[in-house]
DNA sequence: GATGAATGAGTCTTCATTCAT
DNA sequence: TATGAATGAAGACTCATTCAT
């Protein structure tokens, strides 16, 4: 199709072609709906070769997940310049994230939608990557918390010791979930709403998130009003 | 299994049984992996009957989406008591949302994961519902913005009037998108993470979001730092 | 092919048709070489129906083995009239056996060749049947041994009683094994060699075996010569 | 595995390695289930080389059959010392046969099971070998018959002229079949029954067979009883 | 003498869907 | 209202076999 029928290439190259085709197909059709036939054809090879190199549909999908997770993490990591303030680093991370996922919609679909929708073998694969990102954000938040309410400080990197973490662990995980969810929604929305750039979307998200995080750190959480005669259910 | 082999029931009832079975199956297995056989068996009817009432797999799935979307919207609507402060209304809405999705994990999986993962016919179906909810949130934010910087006030609906809205219209829309996206992600996460109650999830999100909104309203937005000699890739 | 395309038959009937086709195909092509396509076509049904009724190739093959084993055992059993002399009963059993296998070459191929050539699931299935037949023969030999050296007698069931059995127990078992093995081989050979009737095969085997047994009973066993300076290997 | 990766060996050697691997694989997996991949790997060579030397799967299998048949015949031949009595020669032949097949289960599986299970090209290949063995046994029987009832004579080898053969040709073939079948069964049974040595099994078989043969030669065959009112279904 | 790269054809198996009653 | 009987179409996976070097 897109590529002339080039024959006899070294294995490593062919494998990448196959992964490209697989990511595209899985991302657009979904794991179940994607057929190995389609992937092979898109890769410009015969099906047996796909099986020879990547042993099964499951294994192929796993390879896709791993590759996409690695490139995403790498994109974010290399988008963030160390030694700057926490908020700047978050901002840079978000931009890198938005940019990469926007350029790689299929890869992102695999990581975010497909891998989660299909049982343990895959979910675990993504969890590892997610952990890395959550850890990244967590560190930023922790830095901000140590440096006082003003997350805009350019505080040093040290994961230094504060007696207590400002937030319980799974609260942080929840925040990361929320952040990613918000980012996704915004990205999709920005893609569809004319006049809204990806950069603007990122800024909106920073606005949305950063102050909230700041307030949390400063111990000014929003607190639920007392239940007043609600009849639940 | 669960139900005694009762025969000859009115159509409406049978249809609900089928939808119940379908929601459960689609939610757990995914759209593609769910088989009509399994659904029919779980519903306690023969396959031809399923086809007689709901004409195809696609159509059955659509019906599931519509039913689940309707009950979700209704749950949120009836969880919010009108005439109270904006933050309280948002809080109640979120609680209702998280509660409903927690009680209905399969239904939520259908709306959030499955419908989005499988092409246009279904995505559109969900978009309508989403729109409704986004509109609801947008209204709340707008009200809060109009009522002054402190959305935390439990004050009456209109306190002081500032002629201009504190926020440009599409900024509001973006925030609503972000909020809803965050909520969606959190719901999926809370369903899957043991030890996280619906109320906790709602509180986490309120903490995260409301302070950020507050800062925004008060004219203290986070603003992106000027780009300084970045060599973007 | 052979049968007019008759549609809509009760399940039990269709299953037998399928088994007929499967026995024929497995018997002629072998387990691995037989294709489900071929079987389905020969049975005059579509492949899915075969899978609906007999769940897999393995399961179908097992069903064949069981059916053929049962009919073979039944054929032998009903061919032997009780209450007659041991040699007559053996003769009748052999005749029934050879007749049945000659009329059912495919079934016999399945039991004798195919089932043994393909792993445990199947071998075990046949072993049970074989055990039954060996036990039957063992009993006959034991009776003959008890009734005195001349099994050729057409005498009544118990002539003279010698307290001890003329042969040690596992010698009897070995003879039964040998007899059955010889019969099995002869059956396969008779099926394949034109001009050899079941009756002739049975007679050959009786000739071969009965005299040997007779000599054994009468205490005239063949005994191996002393090893004389053999350099083994 | 077993062999160090030695490269560049003369063709004859490589061919034997391949045949070794093929015999093992065919013997254990069966003809159909054995894959050329597995054979090549086990032989420690690449697949194209296998095709270069032995042109196809069929041809490779044929080569296996021929080699195994030749070595089996040779083993039996060289196990029998000429110039001794007929019964001793049979006894020695049986022992050699048992020993060789026990040491070469894969080769024996190929000759006995696989070759027979898969159509003409292979069955014919085995038939030749079988013929040789049958001829060997036939000669022994003939010698015994000539020398009178006592097969223990050490009579000369000559296929010399007696007016009529004591037995019709295909009767002899049947006896050989029966003998081999009995031998096989006994071998399998001896392998599985504790307390029964291969030698004992061989003795049992001689007992079983020799007297029977003797009686046959002496014109004292077992004769079927007159049918008495059988209802032959 | 030897191999990495590649495939056409076929196998088992499953699924959504429909008749005929 | 309800179902037992039946299938066309497609999907994952494997295999014997061949180039090009």
TrEMBL record, chains A, B, C, D:
It comes from the Bacteria. Keywords: DNA-binding, Transcription, Transcription regulation. SUPFAM superfamilies: Homeodomain-like (SSF46689). InterPro entries: DesT_TetR_C (IPR054129), Homeodomain-like_sf (IPR009057), HTH-type_TetR-like_transc_reg (IPR050109), HTH_TetR (IPR001647). Residues 35-54 bind DNA. Residues 12-72 form the HTH tetR-type domain. Pfam families: TetR_C_46, TetR_N. This is TetR/AcrR family transcriptional regulator. The lineage of its organism: Bacteria, Bacillati, Actinomycetota, Actinomycetes, Kitasatosporales.
């Amino acid at each position: 199709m897109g590529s002339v029928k080039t024959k006899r290439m070294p294995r490593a190259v062919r494998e990448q072609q196959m992964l490209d085709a697989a990511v595209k197909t899985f991302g657009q059709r979904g794991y179940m709906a994607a057929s190995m036939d389609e992937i092979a054809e898109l890769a410009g090879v015969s099906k047996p070769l796909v099986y020879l190199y990547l042993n099964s549909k499951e294994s192929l999908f796993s390879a896709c997940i791993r590759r996409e997770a690695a490139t995403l993490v790498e994109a974010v990591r290399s988008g963030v310049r160390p030694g700057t303030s926490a908020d700047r680093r978050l901002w840079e991370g978000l931009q890198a994230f938005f940019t990469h996922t926007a350029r790689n919609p299929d890869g992102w679909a695999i990581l975010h939608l497909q891998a989660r929708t299909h049982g343990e073998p895959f979910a675990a694969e993504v969890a590892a990557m997610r952990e890395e990102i959550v850890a990244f954000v967590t560190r930023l938040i922790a830095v901000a918390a140590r440096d006082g309410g003003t997350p805009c400080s350019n505080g040093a990197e040290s994961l230094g010791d504060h007696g207590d973490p400002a937030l319980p662990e799974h609260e942080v995980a929840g925040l990361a979930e929320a952040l990613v969810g918000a980012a996704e929604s915004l990205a999709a929305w920005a893609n569809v709403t004319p006049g809204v750039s990806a950069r603007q979307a990122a800024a909106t998200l920073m606005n949305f998130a950063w102050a909230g995080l700041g307030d949390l750190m400063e111990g000014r959480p929003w607190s639920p009003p007392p239940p007043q005669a609600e009849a639940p259910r």
